[in-house]
Write a structure and sequence with these properties.
The structure holds two protein chains of two kinds.
Chain A (H helix, E strand, L loop, with lengths): L3 E6 L6 E7 L4 H7 L5 E2 L15 E4 L6 E5 L4 E5 L4 H8 L4 E3 L10 H6 L7 H4 L6 E6 L4 E2 L4 H6 L9 E10 L4 E9 L2 H10 L4 E6 L11 E9 L10 E2 L11 H13 L6 E6 H5 L5 E2 L10 E8 L4 H14 L2 E10 L13 E9 L4 H14 L3 E2 L19 H11 L8 H5 L8
Parallel strand pairs in A: 2-4, 3-4, 14-16
Antiparallel strand pairs in A: 1-2, 5-6, 6-10, 7-10, 8-9, 8-10, 11-13, 11-15, 12-13, 12-18, 17-19, 17-20, 18-19
Helix pairs in contact in A: 9-10
Chain B lengths: L4 E5 L4 H12 L3 E6 L2 H13 L4 E6 L8 H12 L4 E5 L7 H6 L3 H27 L3 E5 L12 H21 L5 E7 L19 H14 L3 E4 L3 H10 L2 H4 L5
Helix pairs in contact in B: 1-2, 1-7, 3-5, 5-6
Chain lengths: 431, 248
């Protein structure tokens, strides 16, 4: 198996790494390289969770076979490099859906496990890892729920070594389309109340992160249920051909866009039928949409704070709205308590995710938001972060030291460290 | 479309896997032939789950002619009287300096890239003629268009295979079976992962889709991506006195 030196970046295109990469296409090739470095997938993490500078990493994107499917138990066995959206596309027409899907269908199954991702149904279905029934590491170890190493691998940022394959418990039900109800919320309190009271299986809130004053925190709540019936014709994907200029997402343009986007939904709300992909992966139709932020790239900040901390959400939105740095992409969601790993992100509460152009002041703003989040007893999401420092981590992930001890025992030479685990000193046991 | 049965020789290669998945999506029968049986079994399961009517893994080794007949038998069984098609992806490309150090490597390279698959297709030809329909896609290489210092043994083998395919096209065309020669340029495969200096690299999916579409339309020789036709016509046009001094 051959290695080649390459420079690659995370989805936000702010951080990049130069290091040696291998890209095995079969199990026998993976076995040769698996001990050399951590696995990376389609690099949909925004920051440096998928980067390994000056060291080796294994690109798993060609390890993407579907190995078996048992209709009776609805358990699907796949290689780690298969994108989650492809599984939805193949199996939804046959009456099965991945139980949890993140906001992009390009995320690989291995990445979904390593980040213990959540979806729009987190309040009911829990996290991705809660529907994983077995993980086979490239080392040959087979992990099942209940094992210590399973909990260290799920949400484990690749630190237990490359995952070769996993078994997923699929959700049963005929799914052709999504029935989506959209409702406006005029301010933050009514938005949070709508989220609290929603009984829908899938919910997600778009938030106008530029609104201030009485309109602070206004947005649109989308509630979705799976449905069977006629499928609207799929629209073809578009590609962003080149980096957008710096003014494309400047404050006045974003404000105007958000205003229109908010008004698009009638005041009394509406119900639509959407293709599955459009509901779960709204941005995937625009390939390389990260180029819209220009060549300087962008940050995403995502945190979760406990349910009682509405004031913290308000303070964060205030800081964001007055900064003029927000993009149209801002999401507010109610999160349940479901999590499957020691280092999993989810906790019961509200999760806020906002994209920011990379400008002077952006890092400062995010640093401020991280501090607010930590003070409220919340935590930030490793799949998104590229700003936090090691000191910011203390208290956010209570099981971190135990996890680090376990991981260090299985990887004593620290071969699976990534730029993220080094930056945040996550493998340290002294916290 | 009536159901097709496809033999893919060298099915563990990146391009073959891409083609297998596209054919699976059409509901074809697949005979996946190659050496790494564990990987072929996994690919067969993958293709079945992606929609193939039947998908089987069988042993094929270009250097072991005893493996040829069972592949053909299996495919004929699956095809019945319906169309039988084949795509040949096998080939090997040892670095030129390895061949310089050990000239006996030439035998294996020529067997993998030319004589093995040619002998296989020769054995398959009567079954294709009997059906009076079907398609053969043979993968050559732009390296076969002109001998170059960097890989002329591989190039010579692929050139031989291209000439063979031209003859086979002449023969099978009389019976309604089409043969297409494909000359891929730079494709992002496991074989080219660490090759330096590649440009305008195509994905295996793109190339596989192009091959199927062009083959079904009756193209005889396909450069893929298309601009390689122009690149290679320039390279072929360079007069030998000049070409022999170049290292392109």
């Amino acid at each position: 198996m051959s290695w080649k030196t390459g420079t690659y970046s995370g989805w936000g295109r702010i951080k990049s790494a130069t290091g040696e990469l291998a890209r095995p296409e079969r199990a026998s090739a993976l076995a040769h390289v698996a001990a050399e470095g951590p696995a990376i997938g389609n690099r949909r993490s925004y920051g440096d969770a998928c980067l390994v500078s000056d060291h080796r990493a294994i690109d798993m994107s060609r390890m993407d076979k579907i190995l078996s499917f048992d209709e009776a138990s609805a358990i699907l066995h796949v290689e780690a490099g298969v994108p989650i959206g492809e599984l939805a596309r193949i199996f939804a027409p046959r009456g099965f859906l991945p139980a949890v899907m993140p906001g992009t269908g390009f995320a690989t199954v291995g990445g979904c496990i390593a980040m213990d991702v959540h979806g729009k149904n987190h309040h009911g279905a829990g996290s991705f890892g809660q529907h994983v029934t077995e993980i086979t590491l490239a080392s040959g170890k087979v992990l099942t729920p209940g094992m210590e190493l399973f909990r260290a691998t799920v949400g484990g940022l690749g630190q237990t070594g490359p995952i070769q394959s996993a078994k997923l418990q699929m959700l049963r039900g005929k799914v052709d389309v999504m029935m989506v109800t959209e409702r406006r919320a005029d301010d933050l309190d009514s938005f949070l109340t709508l989220l609290d009271d929603s009984t829908a299986t899938y919910t997600v809130g778009w938030i106008d992160a530029t609104a201030t004053g009485a309109a602070l925190g206004r947005g649109i709540l989308e509630e979705g249920e799976t449905g069977a019936g006629l499928v609207p014709p799929a629209k073809r994907g578009r590609r962003v051909p080149l980096n957008a200029p710096g003014w494309a997402l400047s404050a006045p343009i974003v404000r105007a866009f958000n205003q229109l986007y908010f008004r698009r939904v009638p005041a009394k709300g509406r119900t639509l039928v959407k293709p599955i992909d459009d509901f779960f992966f709204p941005l995937d139709r625009i390939h390389d949409w990260n180029k819209l932020y220009g060549k300087k790239g962008f940050h995403q900040f995502q945190c979760v704070v406990p349910v009682g901390e509405r004031g913290c959400i308000r303070a964060m939105l205030n800081a964001i709205a007055t900064s003029g740095l927000a993009s149209p992409l801002a999401v507010l969601k109610r999160m349940g308590e479901g999590r499957a790993g020691c280092m999993s992100f989810p906790m019961e509460g509200y999760t806020l995710a906002v994209d920011f152009r990379n400008r002077p002041g952006t890092r400062g703003l995010i640093t401020e938001l991280i501090a607010e989040c930590r003070a409220a007893g919340g935590r930030i999401y490793f799949a998104k972060d590229s700003v936090a420092r090691a000191a910011d981590m203390s208290g956010m992930y209570p099981e971190q030291a135990d996890w680090a001890a376990l991981v260090n025992a299985t990887d004593p030479d620290h071969r699976y460290e990534t730029d993220l685990t080094k930056r945040l000193d996550l493998r340290s046991t002294s916290k | 479309m009536t159901q097709e049965t496809w033999i893919l020789l060298g099915a563990t290669s990146s391009m073959a896997r891409a083609m297998a998945r596209q054919l699976a999506g059409e509901g074809a029968n697949l005979v996946l032939a190659g050496r790494d049986m564990a990987d072929l079994e996994a690919l067969a399961a993958d293709c079945t789950l992606r929609g193939a009517a039947t998908s089987v893994a069988t042993k094929f080794d270009a250097r072991d002619a005893a493996t040829f007949a069972p592949v053909i038998e299996r495919a004929e069984e699956l095809a019945g009287d319906e169309a039988l098609c084949a795509a040949v992806f096998v080939g090997s490309m040892p670095p030129q300096d390895a061949i310089d150090a050990d000239p006996s490597l030439i035998d294996g390279t020529v067997t993998d890239s030319f004589t093995g698959p040619a002998r296989f297709l020769q054995m398959l030809a009567p079954a294709l003629e009997a059906r009076e329909k079907g398609l053969v896609i043979g993968v050559g290489s732009v390296a076969g268009d002109r001998g170059r210092i960097g890989n002329y043994v591989y190039g010579a083998a692929k050139s031989g295979f291209a000439t063979y395919l031209s003859g086979l096209r002449n023969r099978l065309g009389r019976k309604g079976v089409h043969v297409m020669t494909v000359k891929p340029g730079f494709v992002d495969t496991a074989m080219t992962w660490d090759v330096e200096g590649m440009f305008l690299v195509a994905s295996p999916d793109q190339v596989a889709a192009h091959m199927l579409k062009a083959g079904r339309k009756g193209r005889n020789v396909l450069y893929t991506p298309f601009f390689w036709r122009y690149i290679m016509s320039i390279i072929r046009a360079v007069p030998e006195p000049i070409f022999k001094k170049l290292s392109v």
